[in-house]
Amino acid sequence: MLAMLPPVLRNLQLPLRLRLWDGHQLDLGPEPQVTLVVRDPQLLSRLGSPSLDLLGSAYVEGAMDIQGPIDAVMRIADALSGALLGEADAAAPQRPAHDKASDAEDIHYHYDLSNDFYRLWLDRDMVYSCAYFETGTEDLDTAQQAKLRHLCRKLRLQPGERLLDVGCGWGGLARFAAREFGAEVYGITLSGEQLKLARERVAAEGLQDRVQLELQDYRDLPSDGRFDKVVSVGMFEHVGHANLGLYFRTLYQAVRPGGLVMNHGITAKNTDGRPVGRGAGKFIDRYVFPHGELPHLATAVARMSDEGLEVVDVESLRLHYARTLRFWSERLEQHLEEAARLVPERALRIWRLYLAGCAYGFERDWINLHQILAVRPRADGSHDLPWSRADLYR
Predict the structure, then answer these.
(1) Has residue 109 been placed in a domain?
(2) Polyketide synthase-like methyltransferase domain: from which residue to which, for each copy (predicted)?
């Protein structure tokens, strides 16, 4: 059966072992760290062109199993794919239209998997976005609390101000802003499972008078400038390039003149927003975030500017997200048996690859994450931001 292997594989020197369904095996280099167990004979001939999408799909669909540390799996899969396919970027994709129905379906697919599953590997507040490591030595809980504080400080949030939280998730930021900064928060999500748990946590902390969370599409937000500040964390990746103008226009119309808007989200490396190459982006779209689209920072800033928002501060948190994802991946790996009782095997395989793969991708600058702070200027061009950033670090 080993004769069916593409000859090019035999010339590689990788710490990888191939094991076939009949027990035969081949080491592609000394001291293998990872074993690919081929279950489907049809996969053999395709291993000569091992895109990351092919390898990931084979594992998710059960044509192949993996044995070894998940971080080593990612590193060796990338080396295998890069050695045989090179470093060509993906082509610019055809982007589907985003409407309320399809967006709601996509959010349901990703976020309504199981609250208990997410609880296994997220921090205690279940903040499902990039943490903020002030020194790089913090644990996950500390870094997530620092991120929430960093956002509120950048927004210069004051007691009694009305904060709109677009894509509020399990309510960690909404509760933090109300509890620590005295804000009145209105949060929205399209995930029913998130909303249920978020409301339970609001009630448990006695914050019902300051936090209101609703199942609502961003396109249905009021446009009367009733909010003092707006924050959107991990949301605009679901908007789509075609709707970016509408999205930022909605945030502009929701905040009062002089008010601040914070957009925290993953951004593309390539200026045209093409997905990560060698099939990694294709895998994410197929299995993890259906119809997700990552704009480049330049595109996000341009669309914000087109809609009247003045960008006043930008911060890259790429390595912060790499560390966050590494924490998530390690925590999931530590709870695989429990996770297998909470979600189907196929879903668990997807999430193992997704968390470890994204940690790897952020570490290697395949993708980025930016916090973009903007202001809706008053008619005379004024706003209330201080002259420096000194207040952020007191």
Answers:
(1) yes
(2) 122-377
pTM over 0.90: yes
Domain interval for residue 243: 100-393
pLDDT tens sequence across 254-296: 999 999 999 999 999 999 988 888 888 889 989 998 888 999 9
Last residue of a domain, one of 37, 52, 85: 85
Asked if 80 and 135 sit in the same domain, the reply is no
Structurally, the chain folds into a number of domains equal to: 2
- How many other C-beta atoms can be found within 10 angstroms of the C-beta atom of residue 391? 12
DSSP line for 277-326: TTTHHHHIIIIISTT----BHHHHHHHHHHTTPEEEEEEE-HHHHHHHHH
DSSP code at position 386 = -
Please give the full DSSP string across 335-378, using - where no structure is assigned: THHHHHHHS-HHHHHHHHHHHHHHHHHHHTTSEEEEEEEEE---
Q: For the chain, how far is it from start to end, CA to CA, in angstroms?
A: 66
Question: Could you give the CA distance from residue 26 to residue 2 in angstroms, rounded to a whole number?
Answer: 8
What pLDDT digit, counting tens, does each position of 148-170 carry? Answer: 999 999 999 999 999 999 999 99
Please indicate, yes or no, if residue 92 is contained in any of the structural domains.
no
